[in-house]
Each structure stands twice: as structure tokens, then as C-alpha cells.
Amino acid sequence: MELGARLRAFAAFVRRGSFTGAAEDLHISQPAVSKHIADLERVLGAALIARRSRELTAAGEFLARHVLRAEAILAQAVRGIAALREPDSAMLSIRASGTPGTYLLPDVIARFQEAHPAIHIDFELATSAEVVKAVRTHRAEIGIAGGFVAAPEIDAEPLIEDEIIIVGARRHAGKRLTRDDLEALTWISREEGSATRVIADEAMADVGIQPRLRLALPSWESIKLAVRRGQGIAACSRFSVIEELEAGTLVMIPFLPWKVRRNFSIVRIRDAALTPPAEQFVSMLRERWSGTYSWPGASAKAKRRR
Fold first, then answer.
1. Which of 4, 86, 106, 130 might form a disulfide with 126, Cβ 3.0–4.6 angstroms?
2. Phi/psi at 280 (nearest 5 deg)?
3. Alpha-carbon distances of 233 from 24, 149, 196, 282, rounded to whole Å
4. How far is the C-alpha of 155 from the C-alpha of 147, rounded, in Å?
5. Is domain 162-261 in CATH 3.40.640.10, yes or no?
6. Would you say 22 and 12 are in contact if contact means Cβ atoms under 8 Å apart?
7. Which CATH class is domain 2-80?
């Protein structure tokens, strides 16, 4: 029992990156977390955490890869047994970042719920970082997020490629804006932690765009409304503006060096079997979106598998 408590304390520290965060996750005091980890270091005969920098040592990194995966697989096994024991009251917990959660998942969730009315779906939107955290802390069985995912117990399966484009109000239609023109406009984006914002900011740096004015808004709908009203431009997922581009309420702003792609991925515990509801949902998700999306007006070569 003591070894189990020590390993849980260490795993919580690795996930949260601090003794305080680990204590919050485990609902124990910070000194208790410190003591558990110190006792673990004494038993193993090796320092796991550099106390000044709070970074893992080489021994800590090695242990973390094993402990996090073992803990995650065990938690997934407990969840799976509960689903098998009480299939009529099973729950499927899903977390998704803003773009896939708003534009890709709703119709799949609706179809799944229609096919499995007895299953309770716990679905929330979050930033990509929060999606990964929810899966790592076993608050969600599966997540859908954009951007790079790196964690020893997490597997990220690419689902579909997304394109980040620059959009503006109708008055920009047919215009070729220069770098100076783009820098003079207000760039509207999501809050920090959004994968789209991170990717767009990196792309701007790569092509030498340095916006003079920035505005952060809490949702893509509010961003699109502000852009439609001429309050700025935005770099956003093409999935999020399909209808507006077709209707002409927003226009794509071409800028030759700008070519930004990313994947939306299914995030889950590595090497752990999904519960039957999650397996069925992921299968429906792949059927609906796996492959390459054929954008309206694009060449017929690009197809998506259904």
C-alpha cells in the first residue's frame, strides 16, 4: 500500500508539474506529497526530482514513462469493467478542443446517441492542452485535439487534416493584401492555450507578420462575428468557416507564403482497451471524418472516406 501511494504521488507530480498541483489532484497535503516522493527516492536509491528546478532527473524521466502508463492502463481497465458490469448505465466521457468539438463532433455525437440512447454522454469543450490533461487524469476516456501531443501514456491517432486560413470581411474580397496591409489590421484569435492560436502565431512568425494590434475572444462564433463586422481578420480552421465562405459573408485572404496545415487527432490512453461505448464512438468518428476532406470548390481529387 505504501509503495502504491508513493507511486501515485509521483505520477500526480509528473502530470501537474508541481507538488501543489499533485496535492490538489490527490486531495492530500503538499507535505504529504513531498514525503511520499522522498520515501520513494529513498527506496529506489535515486533522486527523481531536482528540488530547485522541479524538473525530473534522468531516473525520474525513466520511472515516469512506466508509472504513468501503468496507472493509466489500470484506470482504463476499471472503467471498462464498470461498463461491462452495468451496460445500461454506461457513460462515455469525451473532451474536444474548440474547432473539432464545435464543427466535427456534434453530428457524430447525435448519431451515436440515437443508436445508443441508454449511454450517458459527458461531452465538454476545452483547449487542446486541457483535453490532453483530462485524458491523462482519467476524467475523459477519449479526446479530440489539434496540434502536437507528447506524453508517455498518451496515444494520438491522426483523424483528419485541417487547413488554417486567413479570413476577413466582405470588403477584402478580390484584394491582394501585402505584409504591411496585414500587419496594420487587428488580428482576432482565441485565448492562450488554443492550438489554433499557437499554430497561427508560429505561422505568422515564419512569414514575418508582426501584427500591431491583437484581440482575443472566447469562441469561434464571437471571432467570426467580429470579423464579419470588419473589426479585424482572423487565422482560423477552414472547417469553422465553411458556411460563411460559401455564403460570402467572410472571404479568404490569400497571402502567398501562408500555407498552414495541422491534424486533428483522437487522444486516448496508450495500449489500453477502450470501453465498448468508446470503441463504438471512435469507429463512428473514423467513418465520418477519417481521410482527406474535399473542401467546397476544391478539386474532385480530394475525397473523404465515409
1. 130
2. -65, -40
3. 40, 28, 14, 35
4. 13
5. no
6. yes
7. mainly alpha
